[in-house]
Design a protein that fits this description.
By secondary structure, the protein is mostly helical. It has 25 helices and 4 strands. The strands form 2 sheets. It has a two-stranded antiparallel sheet. Strands 3-4 form a two-stranded antiparallel ribbon.
């Protein structure tokens, strides 16, 4: 691979037809100045406040119908069926629209390096749009918590993500109640039938996935203490279970708020440090320390190095990124500059096999795709095995070739490439286009294969499944 091809494909999302933005180290860094937090497609999508308020209203309606049914002695499942159907449908519509918007922004972007970084962090802070109450919020997490901070500090991004309704709902933080909190004690006194208690999911994943990483010195006791500190971080009107009932009516519908009634009182000790702050400030102080921790710097450096320099990240690059993070206090552009300037990231041989998302976006950019129906993107990503914001786990999608390069997975891309080629309205000279997409890097073998194609459409399909196109 030439330097221009690496800049376009390994750092970017693939060249666009007729454009070679970001085809050098200097050009990559200049993208920081032009990046739009809310490009046109995303700006037209509702913000988290609007989405969450509407979803909260839908679920409030379900609860109201259920209460009326119980008053009349009617089975709540039957009575609330229509209201629940409306809530589910609205969530799916928001989700589908967000997937289409994300694809449009990626395909049209003239700052594809930064756009790739947005996708990287979105997968790092993964939610899976499987829980009904947060399906419609999955895209909003990326748009409103990650995009505004992708060129800021990791600390600010961490705080924004952990307070976002999608994360709080996905990892059940909204229903976590301190046993010794006023609400917890009241529930115990009343001997509530429904269990009220601590939920450790979010605290555990913050430590294990979002910051320190596994086996980095924290214990189960630290997880529990952190979970106690985080009680009170909740969402109004969208939480489930008894914990949500105990704070119903508080805060702005669908938004993060701190509920003192469910916060576990007392000083917390986490990784040998004492946190005596009151209320919301207690967990916030823990997040600040986690963002600054050397283990977090190491964990993030390894993931970034793996994404840009190979499935087995070079130790020298990892050390360089780790040092940049610690020296800058977690300033992300400083880390990105260290990445771009590192020789390990510019190895001439392809170092990564594209994920289905990366391949699909690069294909649409290469073909100059203008119309990107959301349903088409949804179907394509499901067929290729990487449905957007549905990794099925808070660990996100794998970032290694073994997860994406199997024979069946490759055959699905071949089939998708044929459909891409058949639908391309523009007459494309595939040999010329391939040379444009991979400047100074198109092999003689690929060039000859395209030249021998029986038709331009077949040539385009061959280009899309060539080694140059499948790897970066």
């Amino acid at each position: 691979m030439s330097e221009a091809s690496i800049a376009l494909n390994r750092f970017g999302l693939g060249a666009r037809a007729g454009g070679a933005e970001g085809a050098s180290k200097v050009a990559l860094l200049r993208q920081f100045e032009r990046f739009e937090v809310l490009p046109a497609a995303i700006a037209a999508y509702p913000r988290t406040t609007t989405l969450a308020a509407q979803l909260a209203a839908d679920y409030a309606n379900v609860q109201m119908v259920g209460r009326e049914a119980r008053r009349q002695g009617i089975k709540t499942e039957v009575a609330t069926e229509e209201a629940r159907k409306i809530a589910r449908q609205r969530g799916r519509e928001y989700y589908n629209q967000a997937v289409g918007v994300r694809a449009q922004a990626a395909v049209a972007s003239d700052t594809p390096f930064v756009e790739r970084l947005v996708h990287f962090w979105s997968n790092h802070f993964a939610v899976s749009a499987d829980k009904q109450q947060m399906v419609g919020l999955a895209g909003a997490l990326e748009f409103d918590a990650i995009r505004p901070h992708v060129l800021g500090t990791f600390r600010d991004m961490l705080h924004a993500v952990e307070r976002h309704p999608a994360m709080l709902l996905y990892l059940d933080q909204a229903q976590s109640v301190g046993p010794n909190s006023p609400a917890g004690q009241l529930a115990a006194e009343r001997q509530e039938k429904r269990r009220v208690g601590l939920n450790e999911n979010l605290a555990r994943e913050i430590l294990e996935l979002h910051t320190l990483g596994v086996r980095t010195g924290y214990s189960q006791a630290d997880v529990t203490e952190f979970a106690r500190a985080m009680t009170g971080w909740t969402v109004s009107g969208l939480g489930r279970g008894q914990g949500a009932r105990l704070v119903r009516g508080a805060g702005e519908a669908g938004q993060f708020f701190f509920a003192p009634r469910i916060h576990e009182p007392g000083v917390r000790t986490i990784m040998a440090k004492s946190y005596g702050q009151q209320g919301q400030a207690q967990a916030a102080a823990v997040l600040d320390d986690l963002a600054a921790h050397p283990a977090t710097a190491r964990h993030l450096a390894v993931k970034l190095a793996r994404h840009f320099a190979g499935d087995d990240p070079p130790p020298a690059l990892t050390a360089r990124l780790e040092a940049a993070y610690l020296k800058s206090g977690g300033d992300l552009p400083t880390v990105y500059r260290a990445l771009v300037e590192a020789p390990e990231a510019w190895a001439p041989q392809p170092v990564k096999f594209k994920t289905p998302w990366e391949w699909s976006v690069s294909a649409m950019r290469a073909l100059g795709t203008q119309e990107i129906p959301a349903q088409a993107v949804l179907g394509l990503m499901t067929q290729l095995g990487q449905p957007v914001w549905r990794p099925g786990s808070p660990a996100g999608y794998d970032d290694i070739a073994a997860s994406w390069a199997g024979p069946d997975a490759v055959m699905r891309r071949v089939e998708a490439a044929e459909r891409f080629a058949a639908r391309t309205r523009e007459t494309i000279d595939p040999r010329a286009r391939a040379a444009e997409l991979f400047p100074g890097a198109l092999s003689a073998t690929t060039s000859q294969a395209i030249a021998r194609a029986e038709s331009p459409a077949q040539g385009v399909a061959l280009m899309l499944v060539s080694p140059e196109f499948m790897r970066r």
